# Entry
Amino acid sequence: MSKSSDAVHAILRQSEGFRSAQDIFTKMRADGAKIGLTTVYRALQSLSDDGRVDMLRTDDGESVYRACESDVHHHHLVCRRCGHTVEVAGPDVERWAEAVGAEYGFTEVTHTVEVFGTCPDCASAAGSR
Amino acid sequence: MSKSSDAVHAILRQSEGFRSAQDIFTKMRADGAKIGLTTVYRALQSLSDDGRVDMLRTDDGESVYRACESDVHHHHLVCRRCGHTVEVAGPDVERWAEAVGAEYGFTEVTHTVEVFGTCPDCASAAGSR
DNA sequence: GCCGATTTTGACAACGGTTTTCATTTTGCC
DNA sequence: GGCAAAATGAAAACCGTTGTCAAAATCGGC
Ligand SMILES: [Zn+2]
Ligand SMILES: [Zn+2]
Ligand SMILES: [Zn+2]
Ligand SMILES: [Zn+2]
# Structure
């Protein structure tokens, strides 16, 4: 699970935002790579398991992946239009989530936090349209 | 889109946690209701659009719904095992999300925040097992 | 290098939740 | 009742994802 995995990881590293499996598959094929869609899914699965890529679900239920620069826990500010993504730390949110869980006696507390918006570039492009 | 919608809403109101469309459909059929799965989906869609029910996606990509008591913006603390759900307000999180968006010049900022954990009941049940 | 064992691969089928289709039924209105 | 509009639901289509399984690549031992 190595050569293909690395190839998929490389594609993700040269991508700006989150990308879907199909998306990656199409791009790799266009680049001339001989890879199957199944293998892309497997690579993404193992990369995700190893924490080498972040995964999140879009509104329409599609899983999308990104090779993040930070390897510690963080969240994302994602442009709804172009996918441009900023990695953001949120110590306040971490504490809040823990506190909320503790308040009601919940254990093994985890959380999902994503922020969406329109990035400056897309905002100005839309404004001048 | 009213009679069925109300029936689905009623089912949700007498449910403790989040439930899936299929789940609701099965229960209604078991209760003797003559309703189709398509109608359940349509009812959930419109209830969700009208903000009368909250929707979120489980880890495995299933959409689940809940009739929340509060009609203002809030988040959820959900038990991973039994689905028991607590509605929580998070003014700090709201401010944080806004601030993060503003920091990078993003507009129309929205966010998704969910907290998961194991509720006290499920924790003690598991402990005594 | 050679060869068998092990792992990886990928075309294709299958899966499952959701949406679309479309003919039938129910509803609202006169 | 009669009629148009809206709602309904069975079945098919959809689509991202996962399973299957035989072929191909890789790894060790010799
Ligand atoms: Zn953008
Ligand atoms: Zn966090
Ligand atoms: Zn529980
Ligand atoms: Zn919020």
In short: Residues A 73, 75, 90, 93-94, 111, 113 surround zinc ion (ligand 2) (CB under 6 Å). Helices of chain A lie at 3-13, 21-30, 37-49, 91-103, 120-127. Chain A touches chain B through 33 residues (CB under 8 Å).
